[in-house]
Amino acid sequence: MSTSPHLFYFTVFFFIFFFTHTSATDHIVGANKGWNPGINYTDWANNQTFYVTDLISFRYQKTQYNVFMVNQSGYDNCTTEGALGNWSSGKDFITLNKSQRYYFICGNGQCFSGMKVSVFVHPLPSPPSSKSAAVAANASSESATPLILHKGLRALAIAAVPFWIGWI
Ligand SMILES: *[C@@H]1O[C@H](CO)[C@@H](O)[C@H](O)[C@H]1NC(C)=O
Ligand SMILES: *[C@@H]1O[C@H](CO)[C@@H](O)[C@H](O)[C@H]1NC(C)=O
Ligand SMILES: *[C@@H]1O[C@H](CO)[C@@H](O)[C@H](O)[C@H]1NC(C)=O
Ligand SMILES: *[C@@H]1O[C@H](CO)[C@@H](O)[C@H](O)[C@H]1NC(C)=O
Ligand SMILES: *[C@@H]1O[C@H](CO)[C@@H](O)[C@H](O)[C@H]1NC(C)=O
Ligand SMILES: *[C@@H]1O[C@H](CO)[C@@H](O)[C@H](O)[C@H]1NC(C)=O
Ligand SMILES: *[C@@H]1O[C@H](CO)[C@@H](O)[C@H](O)[C@H]1NC(C)=O
User: Fold this and answer.
1) 117 shares its domain with 130
2) Residues with CB under 6 A from ligand 2
3) 111 and 150 belong to one structural domain
4) How far is the CA of 87 from the centre of ligand 5 (A)?
5) How many angstroms separate the alpha carbon of residue 27 from the centre of ligand 1?
6) What is the pLDDT of residues 49-91, one digit of tens each?
7) 84 CA distance to ligand 5 centroid (A)?
8) 86 near 102, Cβ under 8 Å?
């Protein structure tokens, strides 16, 4: 029976690592303020880190607002000519498929009242399969971990390592 706690933490470790690697983050524009005029979305975007496969989602009154994906000219000038996409459900989930800068604006004139947001999407970090083994083997090496552990839950996974190996 003495091995069962180890098996438990081993399972927890891999579950958390698998979970954090495969689940994309949903970035709700404006958080609890949603997609509305008079909000500085640059401040909101600066507070988030976007990765490929993450979602950006817009919540708003669909009778009043909408969402257009535009290029930099459209963003700078608040114009939707040649828009790359548009959404108007009031609860739009948009997958950020590529590492690039994306521009979204409201198409009914409220762009001039601040309803515009630009986000840079980072490439996914390298697959964790080889790194997780390296980090586990090197658990005491402090320098290697901060580079790899960019998401909080992943840090939790590493915190489980001493339990798994049986140090505690
Ligand atoms: C929004 O905030 C950013 C950074 O704090 C600032 O540079 C920018 O001028 C602000 N935009 C508006 C429209 O106030
Ligand atoms: C940035 O995030 C922190 C922590 O989640 C939060 O307390 C703060 O209000 C956020 N700032 C903005 C401008 O959204
Ligand atoms: C839109 O803004 C860009 C700057 O990003 C400018 O170079 C361009 O002339 C503007 N286009 C129009 C149609 O106003
Ligand atoms: C943005 O799209 C418009 C319309 O398709 C185009 O005229 C403009 O050159 C584009 N601007 C950039 C920076 O790609
Ligand atoms: C919105 O997107 C649809 C395709 O998804 C397109 O047919 C339509 O013309 C777009 N509307 C505007 C106003 O650009
Ligand atoms: C990402 O790809 C999916 C599926 O091809 C597509 O429906 C979606 O519009 C894409 N997202 C963007 C922002 O282009
Ligand atoms: C393990 O840590 C040592 C230094 O403590 C470092 O030189 C080595 O590159 C690390 N190995 C891996 C696979 O991270």
Assistant:
1) no
2) 43-44, 47
3) no
4) 9
5) 20
6) 999 999 999 999 999 999 999 999 999 999 999 999 999 999 9
7) 9
8) no
